[in-house]
From TrEMBL, chain A:
Organism: Phaeodactylibacter xiamenensis
Any one GO cellular component localisation term in the record: membrane
Protein's recorded name: Cytochrome C oxidase
Membrane topology: Multi-pass membrane protein
Gene3D superfamilies per record: Cytochrome c oxidase-like, subunit I domain
Length: 618, 391
């Protein structure tokens, strides 16, 4: 308590805000500074962006655990196909079939259900909603100097549609016929015909319903983020003064708004094919002993529609992580982010290109090989802005004064993962190489490292960095660092060997490998991967324990700007309040990255430019 | 019981770790936060360097360890004419990305280590450097151009369809849940028409029997091809998406219901040659690839070894349902003479199953001609051979 007394009673930031801030008469509407709220409107149907961010985060964590556990079950199958899995019967029920000898094994259709659910849950519920939903909500108003989102009510709806999507998906796990099992891409005819797979009946119906709710959530959120960034920036916060986090969230929301509706159109057409007898994606099918009437449709059309979202989706996942990492690396290196403008232009270039590369997922799907030429060129152009971003992150560390903590470690880990996974994209984007590597474990290794693990690292960096902003306490640093080292070593141990599997030609989505001589000689590696996956998952539980422990018992925040960051969110009071700033809204006098300028450790954005300050064009 | 014990152990370890976390935090408080942070920077920066070295070493060592399963290295050489161009692009890409991988990973962790915060140290204010940024935008752009041009060159070569008048064999592979059905054109060299509505238990591909091209088509249980001859595979599906995947030949193409796709390739290695390569001995008389000399059945060490039993394989590479992982067919590449011989042994599906049944549009003729056929019964016995040598 002694150091509290050392602090000035009035915070320097408050003086600056009082002097230069903008009075929006915020409290005139509320008769005093108490915002009326009760238990339900605070914790459940909250319209406060900070609370909605926490809701997204914790729901995302719930789904990450479910999705992670699913991957462990199917990893057990892949690593130890002969082992007795009867002990999982109490949890998985009839998904485990026990033979006469008492040996339980995972039924193939449920193996595929687990793979499908793992993909769907991680891509949409965790890395889209959990990542972008959390940090866009938390940081957009705080970092641009807004009291809240443009429409807090829509923002609340956005979360509850996400929640609803989760409930429907969760329910589908308990269906008698099992959840959808045709892969997270849900290609018809497999997804359109209940005869083709037991999960393609009620499971697929609920899968579509859930994801349509999810898209509604993304659109409600996205419109809000875009509107808020465009219209509610505080005085002085020009676009070129926004932190890179905001740029990333802003562009992510635009990508989402443009691409998710196309996914819904694909779902709508599948639904027509499933229930109204149309033939958008079905043609000349003989299944279950009978020839169907559908003629003239093309399953490839679905793939075009799906990947028109599907490819931008991976940037929807990775851009927020990139923004977070840029911010965290800069703050903890005590240096401006290197090449701020190049970073922004890279985001814009990646966002634009993300819309014209979708067919690189379809080189071997039967599209005209000539068309692939364009998609190869556009795809490999993306390597350029991506490389620029990597070089800029590394240059940010150069000459810095790097403070090592969980947040900065995860940010560094992100860059490492992004390099490893990004480089393998250069193989896959080149259609000639893709002939051999398409749908092999090389692809699994690539996307897990570059958009799975890397996005998680970005998310962790963000959580460790802004946890104090969310809860007024710190997460335990020792556990955080243990979590980091366990995760980076574990994640590489899981996914690196998969490159070799892929180069040997082992296809993904195989229930077991022993039916083929070419794929069956990697038992030891598969066991190693499974064990590594289990251990890595254990480290994530450590994070969950640390997270919830720290909410109530973590070290209290005594300084409102613990990282000495220049951005606006750290000028708000420690206890997050409705409307974010108690008095005036701060105005912005400079860009977000004045670290180490003129020998000063950092200069907050609210501080006016001094007369004797050196000029810099950034 | 063991499960409970393991669970208890895990929980206990968890509790211990959490307690350690608390204690270290307290220790940090006592020592003073700045000093604690500096100690942390030192140790964590050290860990970063250790991690980097171990990680890069592990990457290198594991790559060497698994080189026999990588494209182009060891025995995993392409068995088709176009395959080596794919493997070449792969390895060129591996070379460039490998360089970038090592440089960037080293710089990343080294800079983090070198510029760790120390007492009294300060960060430099460097916001950008235009010249440097132009350089590191230009270099990837140039390298990518190089890779794109090489890749597309190979791609357009590989994917080119057969030209008119070219000599090639056309075969057909139809995926269904959960196997491949193969069809060869027979002596006329032409695959007959199909209509999916005619599919039945006796007509698995829905061949239209009134189309005479169908009458000599036969359905083998494995793919047999002559070495050095161009093959055009017509790939179709009866129900959902499948993918015609021949890993050793670098061939992969989706099977799409309602839309035939094609892949053209030329096998360059016979099965026997590939087996010989896998079983090769090195200069010292030891097996070059010991893993291929292991007995096929570990219970029977005297039995055939893995390389003796080696076969090229056809797999499915597009998720098609619960049996996706087991759609295997063997692929046998043989000499031209052996191929001719094999062809002569095949009987057309029409002859073996359809002829004379109610599905046979020529049945009425057949009935009329029946006495004639009985007369010619010795000839009929010769028919397969006669068919084979007809062309």
């Amino acid at each position: 308590m002694a150091n509290v007394a050392d602090k000035p009673l009035v915070h320097e930031d408050d003086l600056l805000i009082e002097e230069y801030g903008y009075d929006d008469h915020f409290h005139d509407h509320h008769h005093g500074d108490k915002f009326q709220s009760n238990f339900v409107t605070t914790y459940f149907f909250s319209q406060d962006h900070k609370m909605i961010a926490k809701q997204f985060l914790i729901t995302g964590m719930f789904w990450a655990i479910i999705g992670g556990l699913m991957s462990l079950v199917f990893r057990l199958q892949l690593g130890f196909p002969e082992e007795n899995m009867a002990w999982l019967k109490p949890v998985l029920g009839k998904w485990i079939t026990v033979n006469d000898a008492g040996i339980g094994s995972l039924a193939p259709e449920f193996y595929y259900a687990l793979v499908t659910m793992h993909g769907t849950i991680l891509v949409f519920f965790v890395l889209t909603a959990g990542l972008s939903g959390t940090f866009s909500n938390l940081l957009i108003p705080l970092q641009i100097g807004a009291r809240d989102m443009a429409s807090p009510f829509m923002n609340m709806l956005s979360y509850w549609f996400f929640f609803l999507a989760g409930v429907v998906m969760f329910f589908s796990l308990f269906l008698n016929t099992g959840p959808f099992a045709g892969g997270w891409t849900a290609y018809p005819p497999l997804s359109a015909l209940p005869q083709a797979s037991s999960g393609s009946g009620a499971g697929m119906t609920l899968w579509i319903v859930s994801l349509v709710f999810f898209v509604v959530s993304v659109l409600l959120g996205g419109i809000n983020y875009i509107t808020t960034v465009l219209n509610m920036r505080t005085k002085g916060m020009s676009m070129w003064r926004m932190p890179l986090t905001i740029w990333a969230f802003f562009i992510t929301a635009i990508i989402g708004l443009l691409s998710f509706p196309v996914l819904v159109s694909a779902f709508l057409l599948v639904t027509f094919d499933r229930s109204l007898g149309t033939s958008f994606f079905l043609s000349e099918i003989f299944i279950g002993g009978q020839a169907l009437d559908h003629v003239g449709g093309s399953p490839i059309l679905y793939q075009h529609l799906f990947w028109f979202l599907g490819h931008p989706e991976v940037y929807i996942i990775i851009l927020p992580a990139m923004g977070i990492v840029s911010e965290v690396l800069s703050v903890h290196s005590r240096k401006p982010i290197f090449g701020y403008k190049a970073m922004v232009y890279s985001i814009l270039a990646i966002a634009f290109l993300s819309f014209i590369v979708w067919a690189h997922h379809m080189f071997m799907s039967g599209v005209n090989p000539f068309i692939s030429n364009f998609f190869v060129i556009f795809t490999l152009i993306i390597a350029v802005p991506s490389a620029v971003k990597v070089f800029n992150w590394i240059a940010t560390l150069y000459g810095g004064n790097v403070r090592f903590n969980s947040a900065s470690l995860f940010a560094i880990g992100f860059v490492s993962m992004f390099i490893s996974g990004g480089l393998t994209g250069i193989f896959l984007g080149n259609s000639a190489i893709d002939i051999q590597l398409h749908d092999t474990y090389f692809v699994v290794a690539h996307f897990h490292i570059v958009m799975g693990v890397a996005a998680f690292f970005g998310m962790f960096a963000g959580i460790y960095n802004w946890f104090p902003k969310m809860y007024g306490r710190f997460m335990n640093e020792t556990l955080g660092k243990l979590h980091f080292w366990g995760t980076i070593v574990g994640a590489y141990a899981v996914f690196w060997p998969m490159h070799y599997l892929g180069m040997a030609g082992v296809p993904r989505r195989y229930y077991r490998f022993d039916s083929f001589a070419a794929f069956g000689s990697f038992d030891l590696m598969n066991q190693f991967i499974t064990v590594a996956a289990i251990i890595t998952f254990g480290f994530q539980l450590l994070f969950v324990v640390n997270f919830f422990y720290s909410i109530w018992k973590g070290k209290k925040m005594t300084d409102r700007n613990p990282w000495k960051a220049s951005t606006l969110e750290w000028t708000t009071p420690i206890e997050g309040i409705h409307g974010n700033w108690p008095g005036k809204i701060p105005t912005v006098q400079r860009w977000a990255y004045d670290y180490g300028k003129d020998g000063k450790d950092f200069i907050p954005q609210i501080q006016p430019v001094g007369a004797d300050e050196s000029k810099d064009e950034h | 019981m063991t499960a409970l014990f393991v669970l208890l152990c895990v929980i206990l370890i968890g509790i211990i770790v959490v307690q350690i976390g608390k204690v270290t935090e307290l220790a940090g408080k006592i020592r003073g936060e700045e000093e604690a942070q500096e100690r942390t920077n030192r140790t964590q920066a050290g860990y970063s360097m250790i991690f980097m070295i171990v990680f890069l070493l592990a990457c290198t060592v594991s790559a060497i360890y698994y080189k026999d399963s990588m494209l182009w290295y060891g025995p995993n050489e392409s068995a088709s004419a176009h395959g080596s161009s794919i493997d070449y692009i792969f390895n060129i890409t591996l070379f460039f990305t490998g360089i970038v991988f090592f440089i960037t990973q080293i710089l990343l962790f080294y800079f983090a280590y070198k510029y760790r915060a120390r007492r009294g140290s300060k960060a430099e204010y460097i916001s950008h450097n235009n010249r440097l940024e132009v350089i590191w935008t230009a270099i990837p752009a140039v390298v990518m151009t190089f890779l794109v041009v090489g890749g597309l060159d190979a791609w357009n070569d590989v994917m080119a369809d057969v030209e008119e008048g070219e000599d090639y064999i056309e075969i057909e592979a139809t995926g269904y849940q959960f196997a491949w059905h193969l069809r060869y054109p027979g002596p006329d060299g032409k695959l007959g028409a199909r209509d999916y509505k005619m599919i039945s238990a006796t007509n698995p591909l829905g061949q239209v029997w009134s189309d005479e091209k169908n009458l000599d088509d036969f359905h083998p249980s494995e793919i047999v091809l002559p070495v050095g001859k161009k093959v055009r595979v017509r790939i179709t599906s009866r129900d959902v998406l499948h993918n015609f995947y021949l890993p050793h030949f670098r061939v992969k193409m989706d099977a799409v219901p309602g839309m035939p796709t094609y892949f053209v390739f030329t096998p360059t290695t016979t099965t026997e040659e590939y087996r010989a390569k896998l079983g090769a001995l090195n200069d010292r008389g030891e097996p070059q690839y010991p893993e291929w000399h292991a007995p096929l059945d570990p219970e029977d060490p005297e039995g055939p070894t893995k390389f003796e039993d080696f076969n090229f394989e056809l797999a499915c590479a597009e998720l098609c349902g619960k049996g996706h992982y087991a759609m295997r067919r063997a692929v046998r590449i043989v000499s031209e003479a052996e191929y001719k011989n094999w062809l002569s042994e095949q009987q057309s599906y029409y002859e073996s199953t359809i002829k004379g049944t109610e599905d046979d549009p020529f049945a009425s003729e057949a009935v009329e001609e029946e006495p004639e056929l009985t007369d010619a019964s010795p000839v009929e016995g010769d028919t397969p051979e006669g068919e084979g040598s007809a062309e």
